[in-house]
């Protein structure tokens, strides 16, 4: 598990430490720096996967800004605009976790999209995947806010879903992942719903999806003779079972949330799951269930870092803590707000009863603000 992320001169942050817990919630106004935290982790991951973080054969180690997971631009886009002498001119990322600490310092170059890393004397000689398996090992998922929309067919990539076990940064490999892994059991006991037909990934995915849409059933299958797969929905069972519908003829929300559900259910102890706005297109009760699902993944040993605007997700997390489904110290909440050109972070602490230690101004207070005006 990752315990601490330190960002230096990275986008909206001059110098920022962030404690990471089994379930970390990133909240705050639009454009306050939440996604940048996920991007920092994704940047390290894609640099490692491309062989640039720990290169062999005389290649120069570097951060690769534009790859599969994030496309951050050039040095100028990434370095904090208001950097000053106290932090120096370079971009720094440091991660503590899995019993190790790793630091990367990238040399600023305005137009470069490969930022060379300074050789660090203190750097552990082990391969990054041994040093920080949570970040660089298997089980990593990163689902961005812009997920693939409902489609008639989806790509079929053996490499993505079997070799890497990856759903795609937009969830584009989810249907093929579900098709390939549907009969495998869900590992985390807390993730298994007792009313599901069985413990398999497909049955549990259906059961969690039924919390969002009662009666929904799923089919993930190949399209014979093509390199594509398809997703089908049907509703009800037995005599009242509906025809199979294609995703484009079923509400947007169901298909949009499917990658999030599969990412949580497929998570194993040691998996790192980064989720951007999982609440998008979900009704309020569904958003609470989404928090329950992510809590169950965290309680099963995975690590969730989630960006959200949803007070239902926050309250769902607090309720799971109150109901002893997740330890209070297994949570971290960070509220981001802009202060001039940099972002500052306030971190209210969730207590064992689900209470919050503080409510900074602007932190999920819109209900109260509106109610005050309505009651005035
Ligand atoms: N190089 C940079 N220097 C300073 N601030 C930056 C830089 N790049 C982006 N930002 C700031 O970061 C913010 C966007 O961050 P982002 O993580 O996308 O926000 P959120 O996810 O909270 O909506 C914007 O306010 C933007 O001004
Ligand atoms: Mg964002």
TrEMBL record:
Highest taxon of source: Bacteria
GO molecular function: ATP binding; ATP hydrolysis activity
Boundaries of every DUF3696 domain copy: 328-374
Limits of the ATPase AAA-type core domain: 247-315
The protein's name in its UniProt record: DUF3696 domain-containing protein
């Amino acid at each position: 598990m990752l315990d601490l992320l330190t960002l230096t001169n990275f986008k909206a942050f001059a110098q920022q430490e962030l404690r990471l817990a089994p379930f970390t919630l990133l909240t705050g106004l639009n454009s306050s720096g939440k996604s940048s935290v996920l991007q920092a982790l994704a940047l390290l991951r894609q640099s490692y996967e491309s062989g640039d973080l720990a290169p062999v054969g005389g290649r120069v180690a570097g951060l690769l800004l534009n790859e599969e997971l994030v496309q951050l631009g050039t040095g100028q886009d990434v370095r904090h605009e208001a950097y000053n002498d106290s932090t120096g001119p370079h971009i720094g990322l440091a991660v503590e976790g899995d019993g190790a600490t790793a630091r990367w310092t990238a040399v600023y170059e305005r137009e470069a999209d490969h930022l060379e890393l300074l050789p660090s004397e203190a750097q552990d000689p082990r391969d990054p995947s041994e040093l920080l398996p949570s970040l660089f090992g298997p089980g990593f998922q990163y689902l961005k806010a812009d997920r693939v929309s409902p489609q008639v067919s989806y790509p079929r990539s053996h490499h993505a879903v079997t070799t890497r076990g990856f759903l795609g940064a937009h969830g584009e490999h989810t249907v093929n992942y579900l098709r390939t892994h549907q009969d495998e059991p869900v590992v985390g006991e807390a993730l298994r719903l007792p009313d599901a037909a069985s413990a398999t990934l497909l049955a549990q995915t259906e059961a969690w999806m039924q919390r969002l849409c009662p009666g929904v059933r799923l089919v993930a299958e190949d399209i014979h003779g093509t390199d594509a797969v398809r997703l089908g929905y049907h509703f009800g069972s037995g005599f009242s079972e509906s025809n199979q519908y294609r995703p484009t003829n079923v509400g947007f929300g169901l298909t949009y949330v499917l990658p999030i559900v599969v990412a949580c259910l497929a998570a194993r102890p040691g998996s790192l799951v980064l989720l951007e706005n999982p609440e998008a297109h979900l009704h309020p009760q569904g958003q609470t269930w989404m928090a329950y699902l992510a809590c169950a993944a965290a309680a099963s040993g995975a690590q969730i870092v989630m960006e959200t605007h949803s007070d239902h997700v926050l309250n769902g997390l607090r309720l799971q803590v109150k109901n002893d489904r997740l330890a209070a110290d297994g949570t971290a909440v960070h509220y981001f707000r802009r202060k001039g050109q940099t972002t500052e972070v306030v971190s209210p602490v969730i207590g064992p009863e689900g209470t919050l230690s503080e409510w900074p101004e602007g932190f999920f207070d819109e209900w109260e603000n509106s109610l005050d005006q309505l009651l005035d």
